[in-house]
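Hi team,

Filling in the usual template for the complex we talked about on Friday. All components are listed, including any nucleic acid strands or ligand strings, so the model treats them as one assembly.

SUBMITTER: L.P.
PURPOSE: interface mapping
COMPONENTS: three
RESIDUES: 1185
SEQUENCES:
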Amino acid sequence: MAEPTTVSSTSPALDVKTPEQPAGINKLAGPATWVDDRLPLASMFKYKNKANFYVKKVFPDHWSFLLGEIALYSFIILLLTGIFLTIWFKPSMAEIEYEGSYQLMRGLPMSEAFASTLALSFDIRGGLLVRQIHHWAAMLFVASATIHMLRVFFTGAFRKPRELNWLIGVGMFSMSLIEGFAGYSLPDDLLSGTGLRFVDGLIRSIPLIGTWAEFFIFGGEFPGDLVIARLYMVHILLVPALLLGLVVAHLALVIYHKHTHYPGPGRTDRNVVGYPFFPIYVAKAGGFFFIVFGVSILMGATMSINPVWKFGPYNPAQVTAGSQPDWYMGWVEGAIRIMPNWEWHLAGTTWSWNVVLPGMGLMGLLFGVLGAYPFIEAWITGDKNEHHVLDRPRNVPNRTGLGVAGMTMYSMFWLAGGNDILATQFKLSLNQVTEFMRIAVFVAPVIAFLITKRICLSLQRADAERVLHGSESGVIERAPDGSYSEAHVPITNDEAFTLTQHEQYPALQAGPSLDANGVRNKGKGVSALRARASRWYFGQEITKPTAAEIEQAKHHADEDESTKALGH
Amino acid sequence: MSVETSKDVERFPIPNPGLEEHVERFTDVDKAAGDRAYHQIVMMLASVPVLAIAFVVVYFAVPKETYLSVFADRYNAQNLLLGLTGGLAVLLIGVAVIHWARTLMSDEEMVEDRHFAASPDADREEIAADLAWGIEQTGIARRGMIGKALAGALGVLALPALVPLADLGPWPTAELRKETIEKTIWAPGMRLVNDVTYQPLKASDLEVGQLVNAQPEKLHDLHGTAFQVEKSKSSIIIVRMDPNTIKIPESRKDWHVGGILCYSKICTHVGCPISLWEQQTHHLLCPCHQSTFDLGNSGLVVFGPAARALPQLAITTDAEGYLIAKGPFTVPVGPSYFERDSSLDFKEGDQ
Amino acid sequence: MRFLTSKRRHKAAKPVLLALALLLTGLLYAAMSPAARVSADTGNSALVAEGDGLFKVACASCHGLNGEGGTQGPSLIGVGAASVDFQVTTGRMPAARPGAQLPRKTNTYTAEEIEALMAYVATLGPGPARPAPAQYDPAGLTEEEIARGGELFRTNCSACHNFEGAGGALPNGKYALPLKGISGEHIWEALRTGPQQMPVFNASALPDEDVRAIVGYLEELHATPSSGLSFGGLGPVAEGFFAWVVGIGSLVLFSVWIAAKGARAK
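RESULT (copied from the run log):
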C-alpha cells in the first residue's frame, strides 16, 4: 500500500525551543520547517477532538455528501473562467459598428459589450470554450446547490446546531440567482436584453417605489447606457465577494460542527465515523474538483450554450420565440406566465398584482419559507437537542411530504416557464398547458404530499416488519397441516440497529405545566395551536418496535423453528 | 443533554452493535490486484501530459474556421478539440487520484468523538465576567449618555452613507415621467416607416392579412442610447384586416385607414416587443409570457397575464398616400406602474 | 373636336367608349396594383382546363366549385399561383381534414398537375405568381447584405419562428414551423401569400431583395459550424434540461463511484 508520509498525531510534540529535530520518519520537510518556524501550523493542525481543523479530521463518506462539493467546485471554476473572460469583455453599452470576424453580423450596430462577447467567441482562441465552460458551470452551480439543499432538507441536517449554516446556505442560494441573472444580462444579446426588459417591467410594477427603483437601477429610462456596467460590478465584484465570504463561513461551520452522518452501526449523535481528511479526503475531494472541472470542460466542448451570435445584438423591437431565462429563474418566469391578469386601481394608482405577486412575492415567499423552516419545525416538535445522525426521510413523513410538495410546486412553476416549448415539443395547446398549470401549481403539491406521506408510512411499516420478522427468503414452505407460508430470514443485528435508530417523540401537549418528558417541554407553556401542529406532525407515525416486541418476535420465530425441527 | 441515559433501551430497542467489521478489499489482499490498480493510476496520469501537449498543438495548429462533421452536423473544430483534450486531461487527473484513494489508500473507518456546539458553562461564565469587567472599565453605567450618544451618532451616520445614492438615476417625478416613460416621439403627421429599412408605407400597398413591423420616421435621426430608449417605446405594428370582420368602436372610427390599424409593439405586461400575429384570428401573442391581444377588437386582452389593452395609434394618410400618425399615443406604452391610474385605458365595452 | 362631335352619335361609339374605359381601368389597375401581381389570364387554356378538372376533384368540396370559398375553406380568389405552389408542394393541400393548423405531409401531385392547378387558380383572380429564382435566390449577395438579412429576420420572423428558425408555439395548439431546410422559394411564397395564420409580407414592406437577404442569412446561419450539440436550437429551456441530465447526472454518478465501498475480498 502506498502510504504517504503524514504528520502523525502520535509523533512527539515539536519542541519549540530546539528547532533542530531528531532524525526520523516524522520530521517535517525543509520548506515546511521554514514555514513552521514562522507560523505554528503544526500546532494548529495537530489537535484532535476539538472544533478546529486538523489533518486527520474525520469526514463521513456518502455520495450525497458530495453534492455541496459540486457547488463549491463549480464556484471555483466560475472564478477561474470568469477571470479569463474579464480580460477581453468590455462592459460598455456604447454603440459601435461590428467589424469582427463573424460574417453574419458584419456592419451591424451593436454595443461594445456584445461586440466583445463576439470577439471572445470568434477571435480569441479558446474564448468560446471558456465562455461555454463558464455558462455550464453556472448552471451546475445553482443546480448542485439546489440538490445539496434538498439533501440537507430531507435528512434533517438543518436541525440544531446547524440552523445558522442552513441560513447561510439560503443566503448563498438567493445570491446565486442574482449572480446568474447578472451574468445572463452582460453579453447584451437579444436574449439578455429581453431578460433585462422583463426585469425593468418587473421592477416598475412594485407598488409605491416601482418607477423610482426602475430609474435608480437603470440610471433613467430603459435601457439607458449604465445598466450593463452596473451589473458587471454586481457580477464580478459585489456578489462574488459576498458569496466567497459566505462560502468560507459555510465551510468553517462544517468543520466546527463536524459533518453529520447517516444512521448505522457504531454511528451516534456523539461521534463521527468516516475517513481522515489527509490523505483520503485530500485525494477524494481534490480529485472530485478535477472531475467537476473536467466534466464542465467536456460540456463546454461538446454542448452549445447561449449562442449569442445567433440571437444578435439587443434591439428593443426584436424578440425570439423561446425567450426564456436560464433554468434557475424558470420557476419565476412560469409564475409570471400563468398568473391571471389582476390589476387594481386605488385612488388614482395602479397595483400590478399580475407582475409583482409572481415576480417579487414568490421569490420572497420561497426564501422566507426556506429560512424559517428549521425554526418552524423546532417550534412544532419542541426539539432542543443537537442532532448529528441524519434522519432517513421515511422516518419524518410530514417533513418529507412537505419537501416533496414544495418540489412539486416548484416543478409546476418551472414547467409553466417552458409552456411554449412543452406545447411545440409535445403537440399540446399553449393555452391549455397554461390553464392546466394554473390549477396544477395548487393541486399537484397536495397530491404529492399525500402520496409521499403514505409511501413514508408504508416504508416505516415495512422496516418494522423487517426488524420483527426478518426478510423474505423467497422460499415457500408447506406446513404439515397443508398451509403454505414464506420463510423469513432474520436480518443482521447491524441492520436491525440501523432500522430502529431513529428517535420517536410524543406530540407536545397544550398547557402550562411540564410535559411528562420534562426535558423537551421545559419552562414555558405550550399554546393550543402549537399542540395541534405538533399532534399533526407526529400524529400518524408508525411506532417502531420496542425491545420487548423484538424479543417476543424472536422467541416466536425460535419456537417455529423448533416445532418444525420436531415435526421432521 | 446527556446521551447515555437509562432510557436508552427505550430509545434504541436494539443496542448499538458498534462499528461493523472491517473487510479488506481485493487490492489489500491480492498483490496482483493492487499492482493492476497501481498501473491504471500511473497510466491515467501519464496520458495527461500527452493530452496537455495535444491541447497546445490544437491551439496553434487548428484554424478558427475549420469544422468537423459528425452525423451531418458541423462542429467548430477548435472548440471541440481544445475542450476534448483539455477536459479529458483534467478529468483524468481527478479519476486517477480518486482511484488511488479508493483502491490503494487505507479504507479503515475511523471514529472521532464530537463536542457539543455550545461552549462549556465555565467558558461562558469566564467570558461573561470579562465582558462585565470591560463594561465596568468603560464607566458607561455611570455615564450613560456616552452610549446613547454613540448609538445615535452611528445611526445618523447611515444618512450621509445612503444619501449619495440618490443620484443613482434621475428622480421620476411627475414632470420627468411626462418627458420619459409617458412620451414617445410620435407626433401628428409623422410617417410610419418599415423597421430596418425605414421605407415609408403607402396605404394602398398593404394587403388584408399583412403585418408590418414599423417605426416612426424620426427614429432614424437618433443614435446610441437615445435610439435604444426611443425604440423601446415607439415601436409599432401595422396590420390590415377586412374592416367588415373587425370591431371598431365609435371613438376610434377615424383611427384606421381602410382596415389598416396600428398598435404599440410594446406589451403592456412587462414590455416585450410583440409581433406574433395570427392573420385569421387577428390575435397577437407575446412570445415572452403569452399575453394575447385581439387586434380586431381595439387590442383588448383575450388571454394571459397582461391586464391592459395594447395602445392603439391613430393613423391617416398624407397627400402622397403614405401612412402618418394623427398624433401621439393617447396612453403611455408598456407596462403599468404605480403612479398612473390605468383604469381609464380602453377596455371591454368602451365605445 | 369636330371629328369627335360628329362621330359622337355613331352607333359604335358606346361600345368603343366602353372598351376604352375598360382598357384605361385595366391599365390603371395594372399600374397601381402591387408589383408581384400578374394578369388574371395566363392564356394557357389547356392547362387551365386540366387544372379546373383537378380542382373539382380535390379542392372544390371545401373551397367551392369556383374557388369562391365555403364553410370549410377560404376563398381562393386572388391567392395566386404562389399560394397553390406552396400549399400543394408542401403537402398541406389537399387537407386530410380541417383543423387548427394543417400539417406538412408528402405531396402526391406531379409537377405538371401542380402547374395546371396553379394556372387554374391564377385565373380566379390576380395574385402572386410563382417566383423566379432571381426573386429569392441569395446568390451574389454581399456579407453586409446577408448581415442585414439577419436584422430583417430578427425583426420580422424570429418572434414566431425563433432566433435560428427552430419554430415556436402559437395560441391554441397552433405552431410556427421550423425553417431549417425550407427552400428559398417556399419562404418567398409563404411571405407573399400568408399561409394559414402567418401574416402577409408583401413587396411593399419586404421587397424581393430583402427576402433574398433573409433566405441568404438563414442558409448561412444553418451552415455555420455549431459550438456543440445545440438541442434543436430551443434556447435556455433545453440548455437547462441538459445541464441537469448530462451535468448533474454524470456528476452524481461520479459521486456514487467516489463514495461507494466497492468490491470486498469476502
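MY TAKE: The mean pLDDT of chain A is 89. Chain A has two domains: 68-314+331-391, 392-504+541-568.

Thanks, L.
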